[in-house]
Design a protein that fits this description.
By secondary structure, the protein is mainly beta. It has one domain (4-121): Beta Barrel (OB fold (Dihydrolipoamide Acetyltransferase, E2P)). It contains 2 helices and 6 strands. It has helices spanning 57-65, 107-112, and strands at 4-10, 15-18, 26-35, 47-55, 71-84, 90-103. A 5-stranded mixed beta barrel has the order 1-3-4-6-5. β5 (71-84) and β6 form a beta hairpin. The protein is globular.
């Protein structure tokens, strides 16, 4: 099984291009900075920089909504490859082919964390209010229509 789940921040805006031919496909490339879970005592937090590629509608979504500093969660698969560069040297590549991508923080949290902010944002749901005295959380009436178990 080849399944990858990552959460990190875009290091720059996605790079877009389109395949040639009759049925052009959008292709977006971006790099995610993914914090390592553990750090050595006294060392600074380190990150891995993972190259990601997304195709089609996902690429168009990336172009419209993802920007430098945006924190996202992705799922996909690892793909390796190789090519010969102009100097005749063999270059090996590893990248994640993105199957799903979604925001990993709210627009407000991104602004507070210096996440570069969003130029456009996907529609957001109202946030639940503070817990009531009975220990249950009050759910805004606006999202009542979206609940799958509603009578």
């Amino acid at each position: 099984m080849n399944k990858v789940i990552l959460m990190g921040r875009l290091t720059r805006d996605p790079e877009m291009r389109y395949s040639s031919g009759e049925n052009q496909t959008a292709i977006a490339r971006y790099t995610l900075a993914v914090d390592r879970r553990f750090k050595r005592q006294g060392d600074e937090q380190t990150a891995d920089f993972i190259n990601c590629v997304v195709f089609g509608r996902g690429a168009e979504f990336a172009e419209n909504y993802l920007h430098q500093g945006t924190k996202i969660a992705i799922t996909g698969r690892i793909q390796t490859g190789s090519y010969t560069n102009r100097e005749g040297q063999r270059v090996y590549t590893t990248e994640v082919i993105v199957e799903e991508q979604e925001f990993a923080e709210s627009k407000a949290a991104a602004a507070n964390n210096g996440g570069g902010g969003y130029q456009q944002a996907a529609p957001s749901r109202p946030e639940p209010t503070e817990p009531a005295g009975d220990g249950f959380m009050n759910i805004p009436d606006v999202i009542d229509e979206e609940l799958p178990f509603k009578n």
